[in-house]
Amino acid sequence: MNINTTKIISLLFFIFSAFYLYTAYQIQVFAFDENAPFNARTFPIYLGYAGLFFSGLKVVLPEPNTIKVDHKNLEYKKTGILIVIAIIYGATILKVGYFLTTSLFLFSSYYFLGERRWVLMFLLSFPFVAAFMYLLHGILDIYLRDPFLQSIGVMG
Amino acid sequence: MIEGILIGLTTALTLQNILMVMVGCFFGTIIGMLPGLGPMTAIALMIPITYGFDPATGLILMAGVYYGAVFGGSTSSILLNAPGVPGTVATSFDGYPMAQQGKAGKALAIAAWSSFAGGTLSAIYLLFMAPSLSKVSLSFRSPDYFALMILGLTAIAAFSSKGQFLKAMMMVVLGLMLASVGQDSLSDITRFTFNNMNLTDGISFVLVVMATFAMSEALTIILKRNDPTSAAKQVSLTELGSIKINKEERSKMYKTIPRSSIIGFLIGVLPGAGATIASFLAYGMERNVVNDEEKEKFGKGSVNGLSAPETANNAACSGSFVPMLTLGIPGSGTTAVMLGALLGFGVQPGPRLYMTNPEIFWSIIMSMYIGMVILLILNLPLIPYIARILAVPKNYLIPLILFFSVTGIYVMSFNNFDIYLMIGIAVVATFLRLYDFPMPPLILAFVLGGLMEENLRRSLLLSNGSWEFLWDRALTAFILLTTILIVIWQVYKTMFKKTNN
Questions:
Q1: Is any Cβ of chain A less than 8 angstroms from the Cβ of B288?
Q2: Residue B109: φ, ψ to 5°
Q3: N or C end of chain A: which has fewer CB within 10 A?
Q4: What was the ipTM of the complex prediction?
Q5: What are B101-160's pLDDT values in tens digits?
Q6: Shortest Cα distance from B84 to chain A (angstroms)?
């Protein structure tokens, strides 16, 4: 059997399905529901078995078209940086507020993707976010909490 | 029905809704022109904005985006031989050679008129078919619905995965597993939450769509060093030439359009099939029915060869609304996204939608037609200008897609856990995409997960735990038999390929 990445992914999915199935069996149901034809754990149990079945078949059966990915040509660094920026965005948005966090998120994303036209970068971050915020908050009436703008008195 | 059409027209022809169709078509065309970013991404990015509107307006906006994206896909197929969406691959077979002969404007006009005619005819079919199918589907019971969902999921796995049926089925199971997180709808028992309060209500549909499409699409573009905007830069520089269609070309289109629209519509109605298969089938059929002289022109800039797939793919778009509106079961990944959005509005599509929310039902049908008109009179002459807007550098486009994704999630929950969860799902989805694991089956399964469990529960409780409900009714048995045939066909195809190798 030829081992390739698709098979490894399928094997991981098999393990995940086994864990899912184990967790499905652990779901606590009401005592009167324990022997009912259908309870909260019935469907997940079927899903767990289905996951084991399909991923098991994928692992065992031969692969007619093997997909080859050239990892040398993949841009892991920039992708990783963007993911980290998004995580930092998630960590700061509640404390700092929507306007500043989102503007900095956009500005830093442009920068790390290699952009250096500072004026355009600025225009497409701070004023752009302000306009979008006005659309959401002012026109569509979607409330956006913003401690930073509140602290400087821009928002009530 | 006349009353319904009037209700639909009254709703769709309000200033706000006409504006929404225009915005939708325009935005959809922009996204559809970018190779790699399809209608699902465009619609996903729109969902958070639609929650500021009423359901009819929200859905009209999304329908406009859908048509615009398909039209935008045709444009890049014709001008650059780089289809923006899979449904427009067949368009490039004759559209691109025509553009190379200096008739790009004419090719775009033929595509636009064919799309318009295909969309118009299919809107008429839908007009007549949807209400009657709604009445028929009222006789559907839980076992039939359960079987129909199994069929839908199997079909989308079979058709969307280019011979990777098992991978698509794994994605279906993953989608159903994600849908099972949170409180059980009947007993309120929490499942797979691992004592995390943020998961009690389950995983948001918008989060999954944004993560698997918008965000992972953006990450994939960076990871693979693609530049989708390079195509748009070339379009903006292309000389289009005249957009006039002469009498001979028109007469060819008159014959092609009706037959291709029927094929497109019928294929679109089938669960899982959709615009891609419809356009290829219509192209193949057209090649078989034309005379030998015309047949020779196929692949070299044939009017029939361009008109057929364009008519069919737009007709299929309308057709794919039929199962969603009448049965509450989406026929494609794109309509699954729309179904999810409708559920978010608190509207349950299905046979009763026709009676309980006629304004939504009819305004969607009417807005389809308005969308076609807008695409024809606004988007066609504006293509070079739209392409210029699109020629923004990738360095700006990607952060903006990420911005719409994270903002979309944040404004829905005001919770940073959802942002982390979205990033996690997007990273996994990006990795899976690299190895050709298809995402549409996951979305369809995620949307149908809750409904499927509910119908299985009802069926099993009514039959006292016995699985006989699967063959008790002729309709259920027929649907399941169709599913089994699809599976056998897929297994046969896999084995046949193996022998060939």
A1: no
A2: -65, -45
A3: C
A4: 0.94
A5: 888 888 888 988 898 888 888 878 877 777 777 777 777 888 988 998 898 888 888 876
A6: 22
| Of A67, A46, A69, A52, residue with least CA distance to A10 | A52
For residue A60, give the chain B residue with the closest CA.
B166
- B110, amino acid identity: I
Where do the structural domains in chain A lie, given as residue ranges?
5-69, 73-151
Q: Is A9 helix (H, G, I), strand (E, B) or coil?
A: helix
For B187, which of A30, A54, A75 is closest by C-beta distance?
A30
A84 Cβ under 8 Å from any chain B Cβ: no
Residue B191 forms beta bridges with which residues?
Answer: B182
| Joined tokens for residue A90 | 């998630």
Mean per-residue pLDDT of chain A: 89
Residues of A in Cβ contact (< 8 Å) with B436 = 6, 67
Domain interval for residue B6: 2-500
**Alpha-carbon span B313 to B122, nearest angstrom:** 11
Pairwise CA distance, residues B426 & B170, whole Å? 17
- Dig out the tokens for B304 from the structure: 């029939």
Provide the CA B308 distance to its chain's centre, in angstroms: 19
Q: Which chain B residues are closer than 8 Å to A113 by Cβ?
A: 222, 394-395, 398-399
Buried (b) or exposed (e) across B253-288, using 16+ Cβ within 10 A? Answer: beebbebbbbbbbbbbbbbbbbbbbbbbbbbebbbe
Per the listing, tokens 């999954």 go with B208
Residues B149, B336: Cα–Cα separation, whole Å: 12
Can you read off the two tokens belonging to residue B479? 């649907």
CA quadruple B234, B239, B243, B246: dihedral positive or negative? negative
Q: How far is CA A87 from CA A80, A113, A124, B395, B486, in A?
A: 11, 17, 21, 19, 42
Which helix (DSSP H) or strand (DSSP E) does residue B125 occupy?
Answer: helix B104-137
Are the C-beta atoms of residues A17 and B171 closer than 8 Å to each other? no
Residue B332 has which token pair? 């494609």
Tokens 């969309």 appear where?
B119
Q: Per the structure block, which two tokens stand in for B125?
A: 């079919």
Measured CA to CA, the distance from residue B280 to residue B299 in angstroms comes to 13
Q: How many domains does chain B have?
A: 1
| CB-based contact B187 A5, cutoff 8 Å | no
Q: Average pLDDT, stretch B21-25?
A: 87
Q: Is the CB of A57 inside 8 Å of chain B's CB atoms?
A: yes
